[in-house]
Design a protein that fits this description.
Order of helices and strands: HHHHHEEEEH
Number of helices: 6
Radius of gyration: 28 Å
Length: 205
């Protein structure tokens, strides 16, 4: 009778052991989502990057998709090779792998995009410095005093439109800056309208 009683007990202990081994998915999901949000924020995969909250939402959504699709499919494949694994444990293992794949993908994409991002940041810094020099040489006292409030938009590759405030808030001193030249070439824009009024997509400050 003792041996018969030991059988169910061993099975329960075995199931508990499997559950503990497969219980890392959701804690790992939370950690991976925060880490990936940091990667997207500080090492963007495209453009200039995004805010941390937006990156957190994107990482969370992609991780949910990865766990739901790749985790279930991977668990099915894993169970065909290891019949001893309970379904929930196999899916947890596969889900952990899917989270790792998403994280590595973000890291690789961010590293690939980094040279382009650095070149863009360098070009923006060059045009900002060139505008300051132009304002110091050609601007009036008001422009020189308010050059820190200048804003820029990207018009095309290596081409910026940077506007400096004038006493009339409806009128701006705008410059077309071509960073393909060394030093950047500056041409005054005939339009006095601000970037905000011409480009509804936003202003890069």
């Amino acid at each position: 009778m003792a041996e018969i009683a030991e059988g169910p007990r061993r099975q329960r202990l075995r199931r508990l052991r499997w559950r503990r081994r497969g219980a890392w998915l959701w804690p790992a999901f939370a950690v991976a989502t925060v880490v990936e949000a940091g990667l997207l924020h500080w090492l963007p995969v495209a453009g200039e990057g995004s805010g941390f909250v937006a990156a957190l939402l994107l990482a969370g959504c992609l991780n949910v998709v990865a766990v739901a699709l790749l985790g279930r499919l991977g668990g099915f494949v894993l169970r065909r090779r290891r019949r001893d694994l309970p379904t929930i444990v196999a899916e947890d293992y596969a889900g952990l792998t899917a989270l790792g794949v998403v994280a590595v993908s973000f890291l690789v994409a961010g590293l690939v995009h980094r040279p382009e991002l650095q070149a863009s940041q360098h070009a923006f810094a060059e045009q900002s410095a060139a505008v300051r020099l132009w304002v110091d040489a050609n601007g009036d006292a008001f422009a020189r005093a308010h050059v820190d409030r200048a804003d820029s938009v990207v018009v095309d590759v290596d081409l910026y439109r940077t506007c400096v405030p004038r006493p009339d808030p409806r009128s701006w001193q705008c410059l077309i800056v071509d960073t393909s030249h060394r030093p950047p070439r500056i041409t005054p824009d005939r339009s006095w309208e601000s970037n905000a009024s011409q480009d509804p997509r936003g202003v890069f400050r």
